[in-house]
Amino acid sequence: MVFRKKQLLFNRKKPAGPDSEVEKKSPSRINLQYKPPSTETNPTLEDPTPDYMNLLGMIFSMCGLMLKLKWCAWIAVYCSFISFANSRSSEDTKQMMSSFMLSISAVVMSYLQNPQPMSPPW
């Protein structure tokens, strides 16, 4: 009995006009792409955090390399990770990777020159 009701509901004729419900729900009319607002038309959507962290990472890397300060080198690695995590996929990856490699090299060089554990900066 239940099967017969389901079959009757399933076999009902659906309207075939252009404004019918079948036409409204057809997969060809569904647009699932998300288009984020462009930053050219609205410059307030641009997030400067990755750029600032990239610059800070380079400054701390150079301080870690030149002044042999391990804590500066570790802060540079931290800034590089933040810059990488907050960046967009359309940004230049070469600059980000060079900043990251510079900070890693600052950590490696500071520990090669002085292998003792890091002393507190205060």
Automatic annotation (TrEMBL):
What UniProt keywords apply to this chain's record, in alphabetical order? Answer: Membrane, Transmembrane, Transmembrane helix
Query: Composition bias, kind Polar residues: at what positions?
Result: 28-44
Q: Which GO terms describe its cellular component?
A: endoplasmic reticulum membrane
Q: Which InterPro entries match?
A: ASTER
Locate the region Disordered.
Answer: 11-46
Which GO terms fall under molecular function for this chain's record? protein folding chaperone
GO biological process entries: protein insertion into ER membrane
Taxonomic superkingdom: Eukaryota
Specify where it is mainly localized.
membrane
| Protein's cellular compartments | Membrane
Task: Look up keyword Isomerase and say if it applies.
Answer: no
Q: Which family does it belong to?
A: Belongs to the Asterix family.
Q: What's this protein's name?
A: PAT complex subunit Asterix
Organism of derivation: Salarias fasciatus (Jewelled blenny)
